Amino acid sequence: MRNLRTNYLAISLLCTSPLLLAQVSPAQDDKIAPDTAAADTEAADTEAADIELLAPEPAPTNTDANLPAGNLQQPTDADLDPDFNKNGEELKPSQDPEQDPHNAPSIDAVPENFLVGASVALTVPHVRNLALESVFFHNYGVSLNYGTVTETISNLAISVKHTDIRFRWFPWKSSFFAGLALGQHTIKGELDREVAKITGATQKVAIHGTLVASANYFVPQIGWFAIWDGGFTLGADIGYLIPSSPKSTFTSTIANPPAGTEAEVKASKEYIDMKGDLESAANTFIAKPVPLITILRLGWMF
Description:
Elements: H1 2-22, H2 26-54, H3 77-80, E1 114-124, E2 127-136, E3 140-153, E4 156-169, E5 176-195, E6 205-227, E7 232-254, H4 262-266, H5 269-286, E8 290-301
Antiparallel strand pairs: 1-2, 1-8, 2-3, 3-4, 4-5, 5-6, 6-7, 7-8
């Protein structure tokens, strides 16, 4: 009996299955299919967008054959703006002109820190002056000076020689200066006279006197010393020569004096006057303070 019941249920299921499948009409299948396709398409698009966001960016293409692959250099500030150096740091006016060509001064605008040259001058009382000049940093100057001159006044021959070193200070870096000279000058005077009355002499006796005097000196001074762009120099100055440690030596010669009359010659009025004139000329120039004036100085520096 149980087997019959089981067989009956199986046959019933087989008979009703086609009826259940037929309940789902073709119109419903067509309605459900488009909705399912749209949902599948939207899901696929979302998944593709997520994959694109997660994907790494491609390496930049290297167009320079000299650079290794994947090492493309980006333009720097130096490439875009010439006021920046290769490290991207802003250039300053004080930097090396080779690093900052835009701020490099021209040659004409660069001041000379050290100049040397020579000059000649007309002075009083030394008359002629030759100098080796130097100027540095437009503030200071040093010169070595030498001069000599020989003059004859009546029967008095005078020669003057001087050497000194001069320091200049240009307080405003202009032509005006204040300075000081340190040196030595020497004067040599020669004079000829005749002594008329000498015991035993039948004619006048000729005498020749020579005096050499020298002194150290220093000269505070002010002046004007201009230097043109081409190197030409023009100047003048005034100072006060103050001597120190003057000394003098007098010598004389007597031409063919009678025997035993040399002392008589030296005691004569002519001899004494000759010696006095030489000492007076030397003392005026050597022993007394006098103005020292450079009337005109011309030179060249480079």
